[in-house]
Structures are given as structure tokens and as C-alpha cells.
Design brief:
This is Sodium:proton antiporter. The chain is mostly helical. It contains 22 helices and two strands. About 70% of the residues lie in helices and about 0% in strands. The termini are far apart.
């Protein structure tokens, strides 16, 4: 009976009067914030996001609830607009939001493919071996992994960076779970801070750059505030690191496969191409990234031909001994984080739908109109520790409050580093709770939240002092 009642109530909600009309871009826009469909859409999104937050407990991939929620929300919106003869308005709004996602999708897909290719060529495995074989003390390893996470995440994404560094600390701290716990906290903070001053370091900075709000070079104004955000809590945690030397690894060596360093160079060229396309040619940066995928595909062809010449069994059944070092770009594309990519789609379309309904305008008027830009942007950072920073930042971009560059930089900083306040506040933290299960937990991170909050406040103060 519940589905029948729900459908009946939903159909009845379509008959409710629309509270107000507005006009934008030559099309009538309905204000559905007081309409039954608006309430349903808000309820569906909250329920879907609750399932996302409980992903680890439910073992339900985070993309599933938001994909379904996005379809339901836009279907309800379309039904209301169709009843008013405004089908074109809905279609145009939907296409606008979908194009926003499509550019983000292809940008991330290419970046993930390159990261996957570098993993396949053992680039990160070689870095891992180098770190654990140098005989660093626990305190030295704490700082080394944090600094590397800070400087790798602006190029690679903060999630991949955190996972790589976590593998290192789990290796050296196999018998010291207390070291693994505190080092993971440091890695999460460092990776998020490093991603905040680069357009490529975090999804939030990428969205701001692709939107054209801040120029490529403008993000580097956040470098010093980002350093402070990382160093302040790390300096406090330093005195709680175990003393002594970890045991050396059992592996004899770890070498990068042929072409690994070339792929690193091609990745840097791809980033440069994306920047040039965006800054000079005024084309979407995703076009530059896809051009860079062509670099990798041609180099992949070279690797395959080289392998074919060296191993007569190249065309044999996959998995044979001669197939081991073959390279296939499509295999690397297949290894992309598809659940994450579809999660971004669901979130962007859900938030876009709520914005089209009118809820984000109300939120913008209250948060930015009543509190002012500075306090609002600080709150955005705190909210991103509870709710993922992607929907929060996309909501801010959809609101598009009238702010100077210093305030856009502030919200970019806070949304990027605010997620470090809690382990569930960023993809890096959630991933490390799974990878270092039992050592790094929600409460082991929460123990250091006051120190992280001090770094958060110090980075905001530094930004306002330097860039304000």
C-alpha cells in the first residue's frame, strides 16, 4: 500500500498551485519551494545523501542513491513544468546542468586514466619502496609522507595521493598502530591542504576554475594559507609520534616499468595543454585533457609494439607470462573510479535540480545576505566536514553570490580544507578509514580535530592578511 499512497500523494502534489513566477533568460521559471514537488525533492535528496554517508555500514556504493534521486527529482520537475506548457524551460535547465557534469567527467576520466597508467607502470610502488627503505625514523616518516602528500595532491587528486601515502605508513608502522593512526590524520590534512591551491588538486577547485571565476594563476595565492593549514596541526602532532626506527621492508627492490617516467611527463604535458586551452584559447579545459589522452594512446601504441617485438607470445591468451608488461590504454580507462564519477553526476544533477526549484536562492539570500560573505564562506568549510564538499561547492557555484576574488578564494580554501575536520569530511579520509581499518578510525581522527581546527582558523587568517 505504501507505493500506491506515495504515488497518489505525488500526483496530488502536482495539482497544488505554484506560489510564484519569475523570468530568466526569456523563460518563465516556476518557484516550487512551497510546492509539493519541491518538498518531495528535498526529502528525496536528504534520504539519498543519508545513504551516501552510511556507505561503509551499508556496503552500498555511494553512486546508487544519488543516481536514482537525480532521476526522480528531475522527472518531478519536468512533470510540473509540462503541466504549465514549459517543457523547453526544463530541457534547457537540464542540459545546462548535464553540460556542467560532462566537462567535469571527461576531465576527471583522463586524469584517472593517467594515474591508473602510472600505477600499472609501478611509478608509485617505486616511490613507496624508496621511502620505506631509507631507514627514516617514525617522526621523519611522519613529515615525509605529509610533505609528499601536500605536494603530490596538487597534480594528482588528493584521494589517490592519500591512498599511496597510507600504504607507506602501514608498511613502516605494521607493529605500531598508534603511528598509523596519527600519520593517516596527517596525510588527510596534508592532501586536502595541498589540493586547495591547485585547480587540479580537488574537485572543488576544478569546478571553480572551469567556471572561469578564478584564473589558473589565482589559485596559487592560496599556497601559504594551505601550508599553514597543514603545518599547524602537524607541528602539534609531531610531539606525539612514537620514537625509534621502523623495521626495514622485506622487498629487495622496486623498479619502474619501461615508459613509466615518460607517462609522468605526458601527464604534466596534458595538464599544460588543458591550461593553455582554457587560458589562451578560451576552450573548456576538458578538451585539453582529452587531447592529452591522445598523447597517452600514441605512447601506449609504442609500448605495445615494443612488447610485441620482444615477446612472441604477445598475442597469446591474456594472463600468459609474456603478456605481463603489455600496455593497453583502454584497460587503464576501465580502472577509473566509476563509482566516484557517477556519484559526481548524481550530486550535481540533484543539487542542480534543487537550485532550479528555488531552494538555493533562498539559502543564498540567508547565508550570504544576512551573515556576509566572510562568515558564510567559513561556514561552508565547516559544512563540508559533515556533508561532502562537492555538493556544498556546487551549491555555492549555483547560487553564484556577488563576491570579490578574495572571497571566492576563501570559499575555495575553506571547502577544500574544511573536510579535514572530520574523517568523513573528505574522500581521502573515508578511503583511509577503509584502507587502515582498525588503526585509523572516526574517533582517532576526532581526537585531533581541535588541532586541525586551529590550522583551519590560522589558514583563514593568513589568507585574509595576505590576499585581503
Amino acid at each position: 500500500m505504501l507505493p500506491i499512497r506515495f504515488i497518489s500523494l505525488l500526483l496530488f502534489s502536482f495539482l497544488l498551485p505554484v506560489s510564484a513566477f519569475a523570468s530568466a533568460a526569456g523563460h518563465e521559471i516556476l518557484n516550487l519551494t512551497d510546492h509539493g514537488v519541491g518538498y518531495f525533492a528535498l526529502l528525496i535528496f536528504v534520504f539519498a545523501y543519508a545513504l551516501v554517508i552510511l556507505e561503509e555500514q551499508l556496503h552500498l556504493q555511494k553512486s546508487k542513491p544519488v543516481l536514482l534521486a537525480a532521476g526522480i527529482i528531475w522527472a518531478m520537475i519536468a512533470a510540473v513544468y509540462a503541466s504549465h506548457g514549459l517543457n523547453e524551460t526544463t530541457e534547457e535547465a537540464l542540459r545546462h546542468n548535464f553540460l556542467e557534469y560532462a566537462e567535469l567527467f571527461f576531465f576527471l576520466l583522463v586524469a584517472m586514466t593517467y594515474i591508473s597508467a602510472m600505477i600499472e607502470r609501478d611509478v608509485f610502488q617505486a616511490l613507496h619502496f624508496w621511502l620505506v627503505s631509507k631507514g627514516f625514523s617514525y617522526r621523519q616518516m611522519f613529515w615525509m609522507t605529509g610533505i609528499l602528500a601536500f605536494f603530490i595532491s596538487p597534480i594528482a587528486d588528493n584521494l589517490t595521493t592519500a591512498l599511496i601515502m597510507c600504504t607507506v605508513v602501514m608498511t613502516v608502522g605494521a607493529t605500531r598502530p598508534e603511528f598509523v593512526a596519527i600519520a593517516c590524520v596527517n596525510i588527510v590534512v596534508a592532501a586536502n591542504a595541498g589540493g586547495a591551491f591547485s585547480p587540479f588538486g580537488d574537485i572543488t577547485t576544478l569546478m571553480v576554475w572551469q567556471k572561469g571565476i578564478i584564473e589558473f594563476s589565482g589559485f596559487f595565492k592560496l599556497f601559504i594559507p594551505s601550508v599553514i593549514n597543514f603545518v599547524v596541526p602537524a607541528a602539534i602532532m609531531h610531539y606525539f609520534i612514537p620514537v625509534g626506527l621502523p623495521a626495514l621492508p622485506e622487498e629487495d627492490s622496486a623498479e619502474i616499468k619501461h615508459g613509466g617516467l615518460v607517462i609522468v611527463g605526458l601527464f604534466l604535458m596534458t595538464i599544460l595543454t588543458a591550461v593553455l586551452f582554457h587560458q589562451i584559447l578560451h576552450l573548456p579545459s576538458a578538451f585539453g585533457m582529452l587531447t592529452g589522452l591522445g598523447y597517452l594512446k600514441f605512447f601506449g601504441y609504442y609500448l605495445r609494439m615494443k612488447h610485441r617485438r620482444e615477446f612472441s607470445s604477445f598475442d597469446s591468451v591474456p594472463g600468459s607470462e609474456g603478456q605481463g608488461s603489455g600496455f593497453n590504454v583502454f584497460s587503464q580507462i576501465a580502472k577509473a573510479e566509476w563509482d566516484t564519477l557517477f556519484f559526481f553526476y548524481g550530486v550535481i544533477m540533484c543539487v542542480g535540480g534543487l537550485g532550479f526549484i528555488g531552494y538555493l536562492s533562498i539559502a543564498s539570500e540567508f547565508i550570504y545576505g544576512e551573515l556576509g560573505a566572510t562568515y558564510a564562506n567559513i561556514i561552508v568549510g565547516v559544512m563540508s566536514a559533515i556533508v561532502d564538499n562537492i555538493p556544498v561547492m556546487f551549491a555555492v557555484l549555483t547560487m553564484n553570490p556577488d563576491m570579490p576574488e578574495v572571497q571566492w578564494l576563501l570559499v575555495t580554501l575553506t571547502a577544500g580544507v574544511g573536510g579535514s575536520l572530520l574523517s568523513i569530511g573528505s574522500a581521502a579520509g573515508v578511503a583511509l578509514m577503509g584502507q587502515a581499518r582498525g588503526s585509523y578510525t572516526f574517533f582517532s581522527h576526532l581526537k585531533w580535530t581541535p588541532a586541525i581546527a586551529l590550522g583551519y582558523a590560522a589558514s583563514i587568517g593568513a589568507h585574509m592578511l595576505i590576499n585581503g
